[in-house]
Amino acid sequence: MTTWLHPGLFVLLAAALGGLMPVQAVASEVELMGSNGPKQMTALLPIDDVELAYQVFGAPSPATPLVMIMGYGGLMEMWPPTIIETLARERQVIVFDHRGMGHSSSSDQAYSIARFAADTHALLQALGVERAQVLGWSMGSFVAQELALQHPEQVTKLVLLSGSCGGPSAIWPDPEVWARLLDLSGTLEVRVQRMFENLFPPAWLAITLDPLQVFPPITAPIEDAHLRRQGETLRAWPGVCDRLAEISAETLLMTGTDDIVIPSANSRLMAERIQGASLIQLHGGGHGFFYQEPERTARLLGAFLAGE
Fold this sequence. Notes:
- With 308 residues, this protein is α/β, with parallel strands linked by helices.
- Helices cover 32% and strands 20% of the residues.
- The termini are far apart.
- Residues 65-169 form the AB hydrolase-1 domain.
- Pfam families: Abhydrolase_1.
């Protein structure tokens, strides 16, 4: 089954985000049409046995580029425009779809967090990016940690949003939360409601008339088969809790105090084990805290990423 999240459900991303500026020439392009915005071009780049869809925002700059790694079930279109806009003022920002997601192709090769990290590394290499700032959210934080450990020479700064180091040392969600996270049943409306319950605290939902307004428009398809494959990688990841001391990149961890998907205790654990790591806990924030407070998140990220 292929799920399309209709652009009418979301605020317009195309008007908020500026133009696409690929770092180098690419093999092919996919034309995307926003709900009522201008056409946008998403580039496709051959990586190993697949083609990865990506976009680059911001003008070429002496500043180190930033790559942003999405979480489970996420698309590059889902990053808040405010965050992209703010960070792209000072550096180029690279976003992409994991294999099998959105306009990225897939293959029979098994999914794994290490595989996703290798994809990210190969994408950066193909774009001519030797050193990058790396940001990962949720499952993307797993990928970011693997990348920082596999290729420490490539990662200058590391940002882990709603992160966990996985494996038996991690603090996992309650069984009912985990089941809801992986549940692909029901209508679009039912699934969106489950998403709200996973991402946002009840107190915030109670005072937010239309939570959909915090999301940009989604135009790319999400296939359930690939969601299932991604979901299987989450528990299968052995984790890197016992290797966190090896991370050499300057690291920032950000977490919402009311996160039920990846409890904030995970970020505190990681901050203790990564040498020199900084930790920011946003009171009342859920798993998707940066959708709740995009301007504040953008300012905090910009301050950490500056000066390189």
